[in-house]
Fold this protein.
Amino acid sequence: MKNPNLLILAIACVFVITPLSYANDVKSNETLQLLEQEKNISNIYRAYYPSIEIARKAAISFHAQLLEANYEDGYLIFELSPREISQLEQFDFKIEVARQYLQRRALKLEQMQQSMRKDLSSTDVTIQAVSGFPCYETVEETFLAAQAFVSDYPQLAQWIDVGNSWRKNAGLGGYDINVLKLTNQATNGLKPILFINSAIHAREYATAPLNLDFARWLLEGYNNDADATWILDHHEVHLMLQTNPDGRKRAETGLSWRKNTNQNYCGPSGNSLGVDLNRNFTFSWNSTNGVGSSGNTCSATYRGPSAGSEPEVQAIQNYVRSLWPDRRGPNQSDAAPSDTSGIHLDIHSFSELVLWPWGDVNQPAPNGLALQTLGRKFAFFNGYSPQQSIGLYPTDGTSDSISYGELGVAAYTFELGTQFFQQCSVYENTIKPDNLPALIYAAKVVRTPYVTPSGPDSIGLSLSNGASGGGVVAGTTVVLNATASDTRFNNSNGSESTQNISQSQYFIDVPPWQTGAIGQVMSADDGAFNQRTEGVSAAIDTTGLSNGKHIVYVQSRDTSGVWGAVSAVFLNITDTPPQACAFEDDFTTSTGWSNSPTSTCSTGAYLRGTPTLVTNSGVVTQVAGDSQGDGFALFTANNTSAGRDDVDRGVCVAVSPAITVSDSSTLSLDWFHGQRDTGDDNSGDFFRIEYSLNGGATYSSLLSIGDVRTQAQWANASASIPAGSNVLLRVSASDGSSAGDLVEGGIDAVSICPD
């Protein structure tokens, strides 16, 4: 739970918000019996796949049967019927009983039963529904968090009732279907819309929390982060956090619940009743004649008795149709115009995939190339496999059939992580940090998603003289630095065409798409625009700018003539010059950092230079370029290929010079950490940034990432430094006991400046 006060509020309100009949239903002896039924399931198998491409397709076609993915060791775990085993064997899968998984599953279900028996015999209303997963909000906590956002940010957030769940329509309790709409209501004009729904399949724990964390990033970032600010000023973000709340309440008890809870189908009790909502949408409902969904009411992919029969699907479809006009013709081959705005993301788990239409036929969608480009861009951030959503077999009646199939809006499915009940450590350390940047990128390019993603990104924006922090006096010349890159695509499933950078420009306060925007030229740092990644800069004359925050927008173009996504940074103008920083280091010159004699790694010692892009199996382990665009950072060696000169067997440690801090200050730095865990060891890999306030006697943690796969990208970390401190900084990267894992990391833009 992100906010302990919110948890207290949720506890106090849970029996007020949830009708008593339903609260009793999901914490009842019936649920204990359903858990017992799951314990007795034995048709669970390891399926060793012949290739990763076949594995990804199987994860799409057999998603309802998929229980776990272990891509490191080459197998998937499914719950399979004899017919489904035969289908997989036709694609050269080797099938064996998943004995270890069955043992772990039985133990976990027994623990859940014991916890529920304790809950049923207790009068303590503080018991949480999602036992063992404190990072995942319950349905009630999700709704309370959204309502708190509306209360805290009334100018930015609205909570809209768009329909009912099946149980609510049936008078059995249930929930409203709500959308959290985020935009600055004070800014006018037609705004492009990003719509994201999550948890349509109830057991997919990580999906709704990611959606909620995205809302939190936008709202808490407003007036604090320039990108969050301009997104909310000029775009709309609509979040359906709990798409299947009735089913989600069942899944919160530990049941592996997928469908809604419609008791008319395979009911009125048992753990197979309901309709698979993501097979019930109207545009392609049952279009594959029973191959892509099931007519068996007890099947996990039961499509419902008719297209759009379920109230939850009706709520989504009606809302989507209210957001965007229909811009695609009636024929399967009709493309939406390239200037069509809007993006629909359906957040699922699991399989580490980014998917786009079509899923019910093998041929590409008429906007297929543009969908592929944006899909590869999303996959750059999260490291997932980008591909069309057709599997070994087709699927039909899915959510993208309305947004793209009917209306022509760019539509994608994200499949997060490797398990339905993903552990919190994986969510916090991998899923959230890898996927939030993808959602932010979607919010940036939603105006023209079929065009902008093929253009270069403008990243690593910085302003000199502390202009983004304490600010500068009007008239001060401020240097703007950035990096323009046309290479930020995931090419693990085909290669995206890239071009050299041809131009970069900046705008102050008026974004480039608005009337009156005046672009100012930025120069290539090496003197010529002739590469796919360029450091760019410009000197900004701040004469005449009013006091307060200004937004500086940066946009870059490639030689194909396409302008890429906009990024922004705050420029603060003040009457009072800020105090001098105690320490600033962009690593363009040596300031006294050194490799510590305590280092034990065989390779990977830190150096000052420009990182080059390194990937392995779709995972970026070393970033391309520094964070500021000046060409320098401090990082572990400089690799040109995966596994060459990365950290091996031990810990590489770098230490800063001693820094005297007179005033209360903020330590800030940019960092990246890339890791591809090949499975040769289970512990010992980490990346840490620490600081000492007393000359190295004891260190506090600024950042600590454990033994998890991590997609390398620049991020920021900060800490408060009290006055009168003698500061040392320490950066450590470890490969544990074996040399097989790929571990890399680095820092840039280090500063300790007065508050």
The radius of gyration is 26 Å. Residues 1-26, 123-129 have pLDDT under 50 and may be disordered.
